[in-house]
């Protein structure tokens, strides 16, 4: 997903783009002209701080330090405690299909370094790579009074996607509190919007509906209009590599540790927060097409799925967001929207 640029007379805006958390980050701020640069600076610092806390590839990160301590409480920052708490709640909510204890499974499959280092190539040096089931979040104990987390022996947290969503949520909330009138934050396509949108139909968010395949098919897209909330996607077509057991991707079946095998290629969720959307994309992917509509209804969210054979299926409740997106696109004829 990506942000669609809005140009409107009388609105002062600034876009900051940079790399962090192993992906592209965009921070779009509407504010008093005197505050624009400082607000973007604040947002960028926050994202960098989140990467330092939650990267499993940095040995000095808070997550890595937590993963090295077994069977005893480890005091963590309030942000880390809340993120792990949400992840554990997501594990319960999805009957374990969203699983933050996937760290050992990822490492066992060869994803033991930043993805750019894998390069999509075979990993011959990981000859013992295998598919390892996740231990599950039942072995995570949260000490609320202490702000501490205790991991049972064998648990390795990988906060991956949910950390990106949580970072987007935090950045929007903090920048609005600091004086921005409107904010959009995208961390690797996990998008959270807040404040006053630039058009009556909201912020235009472009959603990829097809990925480029080996046969060269072009990507498709559509635009939704969102006044408040989040849009997140998960797809099996990105973060792929080759291990000793064949093709791998980063979305794992926590029961087996193998790559998620589903009749869905991607899931996009529109929800109140990016962390909620992140959790539900993983769950919906696991449930497949037959379970997607039930998952949306049970959690009062909407979205769309793309099947493995490239069929796009809109889920109940999505049409008003698409209509708003179409209205934003029509502004282009007035010179107000650059899509």
Describe, in plain words, how this protein is organized in 3D:
With 339 residues, the protein is α+β, with helices and mostly antiparallel strands. It has one domain (2-334): ApbE-like domains (T-fold), CATH 3.10.520. The protein is built from 8 helices and 16 strands. α1 (36-54) packs antiparallel against α6 and α3 (78-93) runs parallel beside α7. The radius of gyration is 20 Å and the shape is globular.
Helix content: 25-40%
Number of helices: 8
For the report, how would you describe the main beta sheet?
8 strands, antiparallel
CATH H level: which superfamily? ApbE-like domains
CATH architecture assignment: Roll
Strand arrangement across the biggest beta sheet: 2-3-7-8-11-14-15-16
Helix/strand-derived category reads: alpha+beta
Index terms:
three-stranded antiparallel β-sheet; eight-stranded antiparallel β-sheet; 25% strand; T-fold; 8 helices; 32% helix; globular; alpha+beta; 339 residues; disordered C terminus
Compile the SSE list and pairings:
Blueprint: E1 2-3, E2 13-20, E3 23-30, H1 36-54, H2 62-67, E4 74-75, H3 78-93, H4 103-108, H5 115-118, E5 140-143, E6 148-151, H6 160-177, E7 182-187, E8 190-195, E9 203-208, E10 221-226, E11 229-235, E12 240-243, E13 246-249, E14 264-271, H7 274-299, E15 302-307, E16 312-314, H8 319-330
Antiparallel strand pairs: 1-9, 2-3, 3-7, 4-6, 5-6, 7-8, 8-11, 9-10, 11-14, 12-13, 14-15, 15-16
Helix pairs in contact: 1-6, 3-7, 6-7
């Amino acid at each position: 997903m990506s942000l669609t640029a809005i140009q409107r007379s009388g609105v002062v805006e600034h876009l900051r783009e940079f790399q962090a958390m192993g992906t592209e980050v965009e921070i779009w701020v509407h504010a008093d002209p005197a505050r624009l640069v400082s607000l973007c600076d604040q947002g960028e610092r926050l994202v960098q701080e989140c990467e330092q806390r939650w990267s499993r590839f940095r040995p000095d990160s808070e997550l890595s330090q937590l993963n090295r301590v077994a069977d005893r409480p480890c005091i963590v920052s309030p942000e880390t405690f809340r993120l792990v708490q949400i992840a554990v709640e997501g594990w319960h909510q999805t009957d374990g299909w969203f699983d933050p204890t996937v760290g050992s499974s990822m490492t066992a499959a060869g994803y033991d370094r930043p993805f750019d280092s894998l390069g999509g190539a075979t990993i011959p040096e990981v000859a013992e790579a295998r598919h390892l089931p996740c231990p599950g979040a039942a072995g995570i104990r949260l000490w609320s009074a202490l702000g501490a987390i205790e991991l049972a022996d064998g648990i390795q947290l990988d906060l991956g996607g949910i950390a990106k969503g949580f970072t987007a949520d935090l950045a929007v909330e903090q920048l609005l509190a600091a004086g921005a009138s409107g904010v959009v934050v995208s961390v690797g396509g996990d998008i959270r919007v807040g404040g006053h949108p630039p058009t009556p139909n909201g912020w235009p968010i472009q959603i990829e509906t097809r990925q480029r395949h080996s046969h060269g098919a072009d990507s498709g897209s559509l635009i939704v209009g969102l006044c408040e909330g989040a849009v997140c996607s998960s797809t099996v077509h990105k973060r792929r590599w080759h291990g000793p057991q064949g093709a791998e991707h980063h979305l794992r079946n926590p029961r087996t540790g193998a790559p998620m095998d589903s009749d869905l290629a991607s899931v996009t969720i529109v929800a109140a927060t990016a962390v909620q959307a992140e959790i539900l994309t993983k769950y919906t992917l696991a449930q497949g097409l037959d379970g997607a509509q039930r998952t949306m209804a049970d959690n009062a969210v909407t979205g769309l799925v793309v099947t493995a054979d490239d069929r796009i299926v809109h889920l109940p409740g999505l049409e008003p967001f698409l209509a708003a997106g179409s209205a934003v696109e029509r502004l282009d004829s007035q010179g107000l929207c650059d899509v």
